Amino acid sequence: MSDISQKVEQIIREHNLHLCLECGKCSASCPRMLSGKQYSPRLLAQKIIASPEDEGYIESAVWECLTCGLCEERCPSGVRFVDFILRLRSLLAAVKGLKGYRAHDGAVHSWMRIMTAPGLKQNRLEWLTPDLRTTQEGPVAFFVGCAPYFDVFFSGIGVQTLAFARDGLRLMNRLGVDPVVLAEERCCGHDLLWTGDSANFAELSRLNYQAFRQAGVKEIVTACPECFQVWERFVPEVVEGFDLKVTLLLDFVERGMKTSGLRFSPLKTRVTYQDPCRLARMADRVEGPRRLMGMIEGLTLKEMDNSGRSALCCGNSSFINCDAYSKRIQLERLDEARRTKAELLLTACPKCHIHLACALRDPHTLGQPGIELRPLPSLLAERLPAGPEGDPGDNAR
Amino acid sequence: MTPVSILGIACNWSPYACYHAAGRAELALPANFRLMRVMCMGRINQALILKAFEHGADGVILLECVDADCRYGPGPEVGHTNVDRVRRLLRFLGIGQERLVERAFAADGRDELVHAVWDFTRAIEDMGPNPAKPGSAREAS
């Protein structure tokens, strides 16, 4: 690693790795390590500082991290481990062509890179149902993300990531906004960025920014926590003069419910909630989703053993290194959910939805009590029915 | 006419026997046609086909055995399911599902295979290049 050692040293310094006390709290909380995988964030930090010649270990371990951020949450020294992983992956991918083992043979990353083609003309809006109102130009846009693609690719396990998009739009419509939805929208690039492909990520960011600016958009609302993280934090790093406001759908809905005076219809049910890492730990959105669920009269939220900023990962991120250990994390998470005796397992993230939907079909769970997996926006949209007072948009027609 | 690149993915058994026989008989195939051999269409997953388009293929023709001839049981079923899904993804991407076709051959289908490859190549030449051509060279992956 000698030719890149200066860059590695810079990454070590910028992410406070020298402050590591080797207390081991990171490894003791790492879901991947606890699932039995021979991987330790503490050891990776130690090796890259003290034994950089052990390239074999470092270059393998850097891809094992789920980037879920629980280690960083526990670290008493302020080591920025997740960003450290991100930057080290980008460096090793750029200089050495490393990329980790890609789940699904890299198909997901393939279509994301195909979307960087300048002449791309997608047919990606066929999922829009007639009751959903969208425009081609305007100040507010809804960013859909890869949901149309995921629902086809993962149709074998019956995922419904488009429910996040349809019900997200439904909620916006009912709160009086008909947002721009673009056929030219491309993937936000989250999975390319987090697997080290920063060049194609930057290309997607530029193309998306241009497309939304051309449509007169000033604010982007998205239901997906990963798209939200990318638009809010990483696109401004690669697009000069970035000037769009980025809003999480759940924040938009909470604000809209307060200003419109609308109310969710009651529902007597017992639910539990999977906090997405990109919301709870990385965007401090722990209370927001809970306040929204609390607005539904009759709904009881039973927290899992690990929730909020301590929530357990859904098992995988960015579709790399999915393996038996990922599955073990997911099964553990489903056990936690079942122990709450909830009827519904809600999540705010399409990726958590995909991974938990996969785990729910695992033969190991046969014979265990079922729990229904549902997108949080779907439950909210269902409890906010259209009607004369419930839908200002329809009134206006 | 714009030059296009065509990838054929052939099952090792009947279609490859046809391809081999065509070679021995010195039957001409299009110069822009490349062949990749796999053991069974059941080996073809969504990633392999998407990767061909990601790297700039203009058309992909899957040369398969007749379903009943498959040596591996669920091969055709797995293959058809994957192809169906990728065709829908190609439609979303604006590449177009007509750029991916499946053709099945018996072991003695030498002439049929040669015709199928020529027909597909001409159809893709009429359509022109894949509209989602990469802007720059792709990493080998």
Task: Give descriptors for this structure.
heterodimer; A: 397 residues; alpha/beta; Fumarate Reductase Iron-sulfur Protein, Chain B, domain 2; Glutathione S-transferase Yfyf (Class Pi), Chain A, domain 2; Rossmann fold; 3 domains; 4-stranded parallel sheet; 3-stranded parallel sheet; 46% helix; globular; B: 141 residues
Describe the protein's architecture and organization.
The complex is a heterodimer of chains A (397) and B (141). Chain A is an alpha/beta fold. Chain A is built from 20 helices and 7 strands. Chain A folds into 3 domains: 95 residues, Orthogonal Bundle (Fumarate Reductase Iron-sulfur Protein, Chain B, domain 2), CATH 1.10.1060; 155 residues, Glutathione S-transferase Yfyf (Class Pi), Chain A, domain 2 (Up-down Bundle); 121 residues, Rossmann fold (3-Layer(aba) Sandwich). In chain A, strands 5-4-6-7 form a 4-stranded parallel sheet. Chain A has a 3-stranded parallel sheet with strand order 1-2-3, sandwiched between helices. In chain A, strand 2, helix 13 and strand 3 form a beta-alpha-beta unit. Chain B is built from 4 helices and 4 strands; from the N terminus they run E-H-E-H-E-H-E-H. A 4-stranded parallel sheet of chain B has the order 2-1-3-4, with helices on both faces. Chain B starts with 5 loop residues before the first strand and ends in a 14-residue tail after the last helix. Chain B has a single domain, classed as Lumazine/riboflavin synthase (Rossmann fold, 3-Layer(aba) Sandwich), CATH 3.40.50. Classes of the chains: A alpha/beta (397), B alpha/beta (141). Chains A and B meet through helix 8 and helix 9 of A and helix 2 and helix 3 of B.
